[in-house]
Amino acid sequence: SSGSDENDVVVVGGGPGGYVAAIKAAQLGLKTTCIEKRGALGGTCLNVGCIPSKALLHSSHMFHEAKHAFSHHGVKFSNVEIDLPAMMSQKDKAVSNLTRGIEGLFKKNKVTYVKGYGKFISPSEISVDAIDGENTVVKGKNIIIATGSDVKSLPGITIDEKKIVSSTGALALQEIPKKLVVVGAGYIGLEMGSVWGRLGSEVTVVEFGPDIVPSMDSEIRKQFQRSLEKQGMKFMLKTKVVGVDTSGDGVKLTLEPASGGDQTSFEADVVLVSAGRVPFTSGLDLDKIGVEMDKGGRILVNERFSTNVSGVYAIGDVIPGPMLAHKAEEDGVACVEFLAGKVGHVDYDKVPGVVYTHPEVASVGKTEEQVKASGVAYRVGKFPFMANSRAKAIDNAEGLVKILAEKETDKILGVHIMASNAGELIHEAAIALQYDASSEDIARVCHAHPTMSEALKEAAMATYDKPIHI
Length: 470
Ligand code: FAD
What we know:
Layout: E1 7-12, H1 16-27, E2 32-36, H2 43-48, H3 50-68, H4 84-109, E3 112-122, E4 125-130, E5 135-145, E6 149-151, E7 164-165, H5 167-170, E8 179-183, H6 187-198, E9 202-206, H7 218-230, E10 234-236, E11 239-245, E12 251-257, E13 264-268, E14 270-273, E15 277-279, H8 286-289, E16 312-314, H9 325-339, E17 353-355, E18 360-365, H10 368-374, E19 378-384, H11 389-393, E20 400-406, E21 412-419, H12 422-434, H13 439-443, H14 454-464
Parallel strand pairs: 1-2, 1-5, 2-3, 5-16, 7-14, 8-9, 8-14, 9-10
Antiparallel strand pairs: 3-4, 4-5, 6-15, 11-12, 12-13, 17-18, 18-21, 19-20, 20-21
Helix pairs in contact: 1-4, 1-9, 3-4, 3-6
């Protein structure tokens, strides 16, 4: 069996954290095995997260544009229809192609792939309940836990993935619900709400807190919420769901103000519970080897991703830090670099965050609220896409760029972009931040015309001096 000879590295979990760690380890010359219970590589991200959601966001956006925007460009149809099964199969094909692609990368890099559920026997041995029924023991000098996260459930709400769905069910609905209630206004809820809203659902987002996406710069957030409202999304903030009744045709929700008060009821066909994600470690038998966790169930690690148990490491959604695929990948690479005797590094303060709605919202570094709280004197430079020639040319001018820089040194502290392609535009800012650039550094870089990236240059000019085009 695959367990008979010892590995240098055994990775438990084949998500973006785990599979990237496994490939990198093999590239660094370490004998590596990756164990995955799902039967497909890519984890949450590829199977039920980032990728299928982006597929549906793109397809639904195309439909919405065909219906509402193409005629402004002189492109007319007599009829536009949705073929939901075709839309879903496009998404499924994208997912299966990509998961098989990772299997190919494992072969190419000589990573051993074991399909099954792993649990600790000792700090250097994992017992695997294999998917094909055969049990094995996989041994490793080093073991990396990359078991990721799972949907957070809410008390009193049972997810059946039909009427009450998690993001996983929301990615695979077989009918367009007339009324969709999204519980939780984080990025996953807003993305999935956008998909179904564009396809025709009436979408209401119920959020316990006072704000949507609380981590967002509040000035950007206000504009973003207005934009979503213009698209027809409704928000009930400071509201909690105290009960759901699925006995009838649809779902009857009982709502209450977050601070207490009179209850109201609300009808929906489908309810999406998107109240966050929790680290997933069940069935791993971590208590057997004594791995330390925090109160939220996250595995505690030091700056080398080592747990308190020697030889056992953890990366990705299962440890503290932003629960994002690219952060998990960075963890994976850095962890393995340390194992190979090199130096790895991940700066959690410079992990970009993107909400893939339309427009997208992307940010890197500090929000204005965080800069204010830090007590540093700062400047703000902004530039709206209404004044950007490319955005105007293509009639896609919603949004703005906002740059925060230290007043004294002009060093960039944070960049926030709302734009149709903000998720791509943000990386110029991510590089600037990583290299401790000033806003003047960005402004003095020649940007091609006409591009939406010029808005970043102009916002940089507005930070330390004056923009040209507004
Ligand atoms: P995971 O991807 O969760 O992978 C862990 C893997 O370990 C799983 O495949 C699981 O089956 C396996 N596993 C667990 N326990 C065991 C065991 N005992 N034995 C064997 N295998 C085991 N992030 C972004 O950056 N961008 C996005 O656009 C984005 N969109 C998202 C949309 C949705 C709807 C969701 C739900 C998430 C999204 N995320 C996004 C978050 C992203 O999916 C996660 O941050 C990322 O997948 C974390 O990677 P990971 O490797 O730590 O864990």
